[in-house]
Batch of 2 targets.
Target 1
Amino acid sequence: MNQDREKQVKVILADLYAIDSSFRNYEHELRETILKLLSAKPDVRFDEEFKQQLRIELMARIEELKAHKPARVFRMPDFSSIFAAPKFAYAFSGVMICLLVLVPVLYFANKAGYFLGRPETKLVSSVSTTRTDDNAFGPLSSQESLALEGRGGGGAPGSASAPGMEQMMVIGPDYFNYRYVYKGDELILDEAKVEVWRRQKGEQARSGITNLLSSMDFGIFDLSTFKDIQVQRIQLVQDKEFGYSISVDFYEGTVSVNRNYRKWLPGIMESSSLQISDIPNDAQLIAIADNFIREHKINVANYGQPVVNRYWESQSQTGGVFEETIYIHEEVSITYPLVINGINVYDQGGSQFGLTVSVHIPEMKVAGLYNLISQNYETSMYEAETDTAKILEIAEQGGIQGGWYFYGDGETVEAELGTPERIYMRFMTYDNFESNELLVPALLFPITEAPEGKSMFRKNIIVPLAKELLEENNDIPVPRPLPAPPVSSEPISMPEPAPVLTPAETQTEE
Amino acid sequence: MEILEQQVIRQCQRGNLEQFEKLYDVYSEKIYRFIYYKTHHKPTAEDLTSQTFMKALNNIQTFRSAKGSFPAWIYRIARNNVIDYYRTKKSNIDISDVWDLHLDEDIERDTANKEKLEEVMKYLENIDKEHREIVIMRVWDGLSYKQISEIVNKSEENCRVIFCRSIGKLRKEVVLSLLIILLNLQ
């Protein structure tokens, strides 16, 4: 008898003895009875296809409830019940006969190129998972995987002046040492293993487009002479004013949209100097992004509420003079955070990862869309860290990569960390030129109290829960910048640039 | 997990219905199994599972945690859907699920599990149908007495006692059948 079943029998017997201890006299018979019941339990397999189909229907119903509009969802009817109902039998038979005749005719006609239907090439938009063995994705930690995204610590970077000013004024950066102190609730970690997700790729249904293209003779060469070809990427371009360039990577399972630069006004290409006051409010920016998404029927079912990336706010300091010198890019990005199983996804640096839409401020149009990805995953269990003291230690040092750290006369300031929330940390590993996109369960410690008067780029500290990542990465030395001079908030005047000499002026007398 | 679940439900009730997907992920397979054990027919179980989640979604606003837990609520919806289904199918007799019907009754069943169920049917059909339901929920669904009590609307202690007595009765049936087999062999 397997261990699970034995455990179940023991639990049920314990129930019975707790109610009536005389049952102990019949232990053998009771055991037989319970085993009979357990053995008779039907073998049930929960159909994944049905699960996904119902998910789609539920999401459609959610949209309907939110918009009060009927959603059209096609669901395969259960033909067995139709067969059982005599009054439908004749009509159904007729339909089946037509289909049996028409479908092969249509299929072969399409294959022969008589007409082009809509090729069936779908990127998976709803989350699907396949469970694999424990540690199936190999070691999580490697030198290559430490490439940080969005690393930021304390201190403000040098702010470039707005172009056009006669004298370049550069604000010297502030250098601080940061100390994080945890002030949240007691942490309890009771999972022995955590489920790591790996996004699958290379499995996209490319056959539709491949069939379409592979028979083409382009005139200067015949594509059909190349056997076993697959379409990995396509790029499509809108040849109109403010048109877009759309890239679909079937192998990576990604879609991105960029401006077709040839069709956006020439003046737009130069970087403009914008002020903070030129940036519209969040509601206006999000409305532009939402309209684009709606117009192009972009499936955002797995993404949360959009957030505008107001990066300039962390750069600005008190005192209006500094705000005017902050460089504002002509595009502002809005992130629709990816949500997996109800849990937000972040990159290692602490920014929410998700679908990004950039809005071109001068034209108030969407300039690009990125990180629209397929949602096919494999999952594997990895050993989890259960030592809360270790987790807090790593959080208080600024995460597994630490933060920027300045020696010497740099001031040390304290920031407080609050009770963490559970997230997925997006994490890339590399293996033989292949990138693996992993989602590792992690804790996000919010910075609840920043030091007064000091700017902070970081809003949170992320600590992954996979033990392997905590054991190895902590030993890898973090690059330390050179010691910096003490803080100076006075603007530093840059020297005039050297004059450009003409060829005649550069000639020396021989 | 319970606190997270309450947060999710609150979010749904505030209009953030996308959060419902989290509840679906947790309960879809459990509800399907629960219904399957009552219907023994995959297409019927799938249909009733769909109905259950649609009803839960449409009525999430009416759920009140003060009146009981969410699992009990959704299991009750599933249970009621099964009862309604069979009463529609066989309106002339009082049946709650497929266990109330004999094996040769004209109702869809999966043949794959038929043999297994035939064996246990002869024991379970001799106990009261409410008691049978509690036994199945405890042994096959693995539900706690607390959850069972909320689903069948009885006290937790009552459910424990019913389970105990039912197993006791089944024990005698098993012993008796073994005895009959032994006597026939001699």
Note: The mean pLDDT of chain B is 82.
Target 2
Amino acid sequence: MRQAWQVSAVPIASVLLAIVVGGLVILASSIIIKGSLDFGLPFVAYGALLEGGLGIGAPTLDATINALTRSAVAAAPLLLAGLSVALGFKAGLFNIGATGQFVIGGLVACVVGAELATWSPWVAMPVALVAGALAGAAYGFIPGLLKATTGAHEVVTTIMLNYIAVLTATALVIGPLRAPGYTFDRTADIGNAGLPVVFGRDLHLGVLIALAFVPLYGWLVWRTTLGFEIRTVGANPSAARYAGMSPRRLIIVTMSLCGMLAGLAGTIVFLGQVRYYPATFGTGIGFEAIAVALLGRSHPIGVLLSAILFGIMRAGAPLMQIRADIPIQIIDVLTAIILFFLAADIIVRRLFRFRAAKGGVEGDVAAVSRSYGGETAR
Amino acid sequence: MDFQVLYDIPLIGLVFQLVGYLFEVLPRIAPGILAGATPIALGAMCGILCERSGVVNIGIEGMMLTGAFVGFATGSIVAGMVPDGPETNAFGITIPLVAAVIAAILSGMLLSVIHAWLSISVRADQIISGTIINIIALGLTGYLWSLVGTDLDSGGRFDKLKPPEGLIDLPVVGPILDMFLDQGPIAFSLIFIVILLQVLLFRSRWGLRTRAVGEHPRAADTVGIDVILLRYRNVIVGGALAGLAGAYLTLEATGSFQTGMTAGRGFIALAAVIFGRWTPIGALLAALLFAGSERLGIAIALSPPQGQLGDVLGQLPNQFWAALPYILTIVVLAGVVGRSIPPAAVGRPYAKEGHD
């Protein structure tokens, strides 16, 4: 229990601090929104956030349940993408490519799903899911291979691949993958390949799939040989090499798994919610996933809780915009502030007088910068 | 000389057609290439300053974006406060624009102070720190733009210099001079910044100290160089350059702002740094290559080459040309990184002996 506290102290404190600072940002914004300083605005805003995301203070039970399912649906892709980034961190890799992997996974899932739209759902659904996951894995394989064989640091290659993925998807959906008969460029409907709603108005199967990966991740990382190798190469590549492991192979395998997770995130969003792929699709999930992974300290339970937190924020933001006139981008600001405090944990620790326990993120991500200069794994 | 014979050779003829096309179109798009290379090159100068000192700066993208937004917003606000002055100077310089550039530079420096503090003093992982800078920049600019964007009119835009006819009509030198002269002030100053940095980095005392700190900070410390202070100063100056790059985007290239408009240029700048072997001139050439690929695509789309080559290239969707700089960046990184030698101490935080 004490260890759990030590590990989560700084993240929890960072979130609390961010809420306060975020409130100040909202307060400052009130000058522009209302014309003068409105001290009530932060409370209205946060109140709306809680109501839209958690159903606290909602008028009916129905509204409360809808808020909760909305948060769950928003949290599911963040959970998978967060696990994707977290797994990378375990191996000393920084997977910023979750956006690209998400897009590719979603696109392939939609295309395969559309092909199987009239088949039995028992066939169409799993095939589309697997197709999306594999596509994501393939897209994660690319930067993994590049890093393992040429030393090209995944930070830059994955970001480049993000842009390439979005452009490629757009080109494909405008061109060969375009479904006829619609007023805008999009793929065909996925029909029976879609994920069914299992609870409430919109909580679809994808949420359960995402949840299933929490114990799976834990099992992989702490109960398999591969997980042990991943952790070793992340902590000390030289020691891993000395022990007979192949950092090169591990980089490729890990990045592919990361790609699979992020691709699956895209898959469940498109199969469960959107149900087709539009030509112009933008998402900032890659950066949010980084925040989720860092806040969750790359631990499956931490990532789960962080994803839920961000899911609540995402789900509650529209109501906040309606009630308080605050642009929904405030969530991005809050995310950024949380990350800042995580990195500057020294501020957090001094403010809250924590002991010098390893609360910061350096422990989680020590190996990431080490490989920047191109020292190739051998 | 009639090259048609060469063009008609099957398959290989395509290569000749391409070369011929390039000869014809490059002089026309050369000024555009330098203009497009400006933000990448300025970002690369920032990257060189930081990495030569031993600090990885992934946050160039965020600093650029912030500079772009702050520059635009400042220009807009100041233009609303100041009456229209006489606009008779060569670059179209006005008070709002000057204020905007200064504000953009300062905002870049502010972000770089945060990055410097996190990387040098807190000794957080530098790539994480840089990424956080990017997320902060994206979040804040997006939020502020949603808040006030509709109320901000453009504060103006720098004009390009009109080079004298006599100069650009010269046979070989002409197009090259045209490329450097037919620019707005920020792009125009790029060549001077690059040369200045090249000279300073390799021929001045500051440059020697900087490189020493980047290679072996412990040794540099032993001979009395203040490693921490030098790193702080260089990172902050780098931030100024990144802010200037952002100012270019909203005050010279266009007269407007869009969320996320930097579109990865800050990261392409990092590839330019590596490709140029951490030298300013090398990075400039790399930036020209990256920008050139995109401009070439636009040229091909607007005035396609004749004959066979045109048919082949016409098949490629527009998005291919937009993606080309990103693809090139990966190709460059894959081909060059393993073989290039970065400053030895890059990415590693420095702690004075006896402290901690």
Note: The mean pLDDT of chain A is 88.
